[in-house]
Amino acid sequence: MSGRRSRSVGDIAVELGFKNVYNLEGGWKAADTIPHQPYAKNHSPWVHTIFEKETETAQYVVTDIETREAYIIDPVLDYDPFSSCVHPSTAKQIIEFVRKHKLNITKIIDTHVHADHLSAANYLKMHLDSKPEFWIGKNVTKVQDVFSKKYNFPKNDFRANGEQFDRLIDEGDTWTLGGNIQCDALFTPGHTPACVSYRIGDAGFVGDTLFMPDIGTARCDFPGGSVEDMYKSIHKIYDHWIDDTRIYVGHDYPPSESGRDYDVMTTLDAHKRFNKMINTHVSFDKYVSMRKERDASLKAPRFIHPSLQTNLRGGTLPSREQPADENEDPASVGRFFKIPVRWKD
């Protein structure tokens, strides 16, 4: 297009809040003279965000507009620790959105076993007419093995083999959303050993691997976490995905001094240039030092124990306990989350 029209479009984009907008004089002939990345079948899905502020979690509905096929990524099941009550208020918002837009949900994807919120995947499976599959990375079994021992799950009630999920995703798996939106998966361990980042068309969903550039990355101090693995995983994303990939993060915690509102998306190029912890100019040793120093100051997530004990089970709450008296009605005994206790002088 001519310079006049592209400049007008650029001005409108800036007014709408888009960043990194540039006008190239000379049209398509000039575009051929500058470095560019080839088209890679990265059709754009429609990404709708539902932000859950209690745990500051971004949930996504990712849709192929032509076919109305859609995925739900990292849905939240609400939990009130004071009343010990689990409720689906946020999940119902997702269902309402799906029904309003007549979407066909075929997959629910958790990027990892969340330690800060309960997964609503099982609830959504039961309440959506399409009965979608629940997907997670195959290394979930490593997390199940560690924490089933930590919480002393009864062997007759839980097996650490991933059977609680419909499909265990492997590195390099590919599939298609709708007619032409290409999808693939990268193993990105670091935050947990089971973290997977998903590319759906030109949109990347990285869970707790990357946060917004002014925050950096997720913590790496959970059992099975690794700062060294996190550095390698993020550089794997940098190397495998093209720069204009839209990166959608799992959480946002706006720094108080920034004055900005919640934000969950920027480009991969912005991370490579500006991520405060792991842009392309940060060395391995520097990142490891910064991440370990930051992790040493962090407390455990508020809902870590209810979250893990639910999410390891595929979003299912613990089974009802058996009554001590065999003559007692089993329905009279409730479900319980285990909370580890330590003595500290």
UniProtKB/TrEMBL annotation:
Name this polypeptide is given: Rhodanese domain-containing protein
Boundaries of every Rhodanese domain copy: 2-33
Keywords for the protein's UniProt record, in alphabetical order: Metal-binding
Residue span of region Disordered: 309-331
InterPro entries per the UniProt record, alphabetical: Metallo-B-lactamas, Mito_Persulfide_Diox, POD-like_MBL-fold, Rhodanese-like_dom, Rhodanese-like_dom_sf, RibonucZ/Hydroxyglut_hydro
GO BP terms, alphabetized: glutathione metabolic process; hydrogen sulfide metabolic process
Keyword Membrane: no
Ranges annotated as spanning the membrane: none
Gene3D superfamilies the record matches: Ribonuclease Z/Hydroxyacylglutathione hydrolase-like (3.60.15.10)
GO molecular function ontology, one term from the record: metal ion binding
CDD domains referenced in this protein's UniProt entry, alphabetically: POD-like_MBL-fold, RHOD
Metal-binding in keyword set: yes
